[in-house]
Amino acid sequence: MKKVFIDGSEGTTGLRIFERFQVRDDIELLRIDSDKRKDPEEIKKFINASDITFLCLPDAAAIEAVELCDNPDTVILDTSTAHRTVPGWAYGFPELSKDHREAIAKGKRIAVPGCYASGFIGLAFPLVKGNILPKDYPVSVFAVSGYSGGGKKLIAQYEEEGRDAKYDSARMYAWGQKHKHLKEMKQITGLTREPLFCPLTTNYHSGMVVQVPIYTDMLNEKKTPEEIRDYLADYYKDEKFIRVMPFGADTDAGGALFSDAMSGWDGYEIFVTGNDERIVVASRFDNLGKGASGAAIQCMNIVMGCDEAKGLSL
Prior knowledge:
With about 325 residues, the chain is an alpha/beta fold. Helices cover about 30% and strands about 20% of the residues.
């Protein structure tokens, strides 16, 4: 039985992880007193007493928490942005490659991907690795997420009684192209430039769709939508968390994808549509599932050597 500590258990991701542990019989959850959850000495004691610690904290606090760990056997899973591109940290998206999964299994420091980043990287990484998408391609990313992706403050704004009517409509943001996920979106995929990223949140709790449009004549070798779909299906063929949908699935669904349809699910769908000139590849998943707590628990399961899907909804 592994001893597990959640630092930041009252945040959105931490609460979701805590909830999922209620059905686990293979971990002992270490619980800090609520009045001491910001006491560095108490946090240090719990981190070093654990086999596995989840950091569900803002970036600066996550960096400080890592410095408190002096137990060489403690595995730290950080859900913040702080360590996703830092050398020595495994990137927690095991489906990307055998090397990614092995690094998670053997690592003591694991950075859990961001939600938008997961939606993009799961599409772009295999296309770059397969020499289909040029590394210098001018990538654009269009994405919509439930408001829970914005954390406790944004959740409160959307759920406040008598809230401002503006929250009934789409909230488009990150106009300055400085979104915190951009660094990992570039570095993990191997692109030579950061994508042009256009995210928005709107009036539902969780679930997201991330879209990447592609001009086929700008690929290293021109491909049809069917060929792109088949390549991705083969790339992820042995992955239980990733489901590459049949070509035409969007048409079968009425020509529209609803971004909250996977809320509560921990998997990841991929759609490919378009024509011989222009293709759109898209991912659909729960920003709190494969985009946050679900991904963190999947990484923990790999560390523990048990079924990756244990305690998760697939």
